[in-house]
Amino acid sequence: xxxxxxxxxxxxxxxxxxxxxxxxxxxxxxxxxxxxxxxxxxxxxxxxxxxxxxxxxxxxxxxxxxxxxxxxxxxxxxxxxxxxxxxxxxxxxxxxxxxxxxxxxxxxxxxxxxxxxxxxxxxxxxxxxxxxxxxxxxxxxxxxxxxxxxxxxxxxxxxxxxxxxxxxxxxxxxxxxxxxxxxxxx
Length: 186
Fold this sequence. Notes:
mainly beta, Immunoglobulin-like, 2 domains, 4-stranded antiparallel beta sheet, 3-stranded antiparallel beta sheet
């Protein structure tokens, strides 16, 4: 129980939950900057764990958290969307697999635009599309792909019920290709 008149630090902190016997149920550090969900930092959305039964080790990983589907969250209830019956199928026949659209929404928007400081990547995710996790990858030759770790200038906004995210990849002088890949959450 959180004592009345107290609140979580708006700059990120260690959160510890104990049970009635005083044993720790979960303890982890959360943040209020990217890669943590930005809409949950003063924009009215709650921070939602996408796989709460995964255990303590997953709670401290920002990639396992998302902003709630609606402002104020859904205390005591889940706002997760139903998992696709056939994640690898293409139910609507548009060439995109069900899991991809479950996570990124219909059309699975992902773009890269040239800018003076580098490339600006823009993509969308569906709040509640918790059956998969989006990974941004880059390649110099379209053969070998690696997870992109150099994202800066991260931003988030709720647009039409989808979370629109953007980030800058600093200019490197090398030709690079980008893709979004969705992996199932165990």
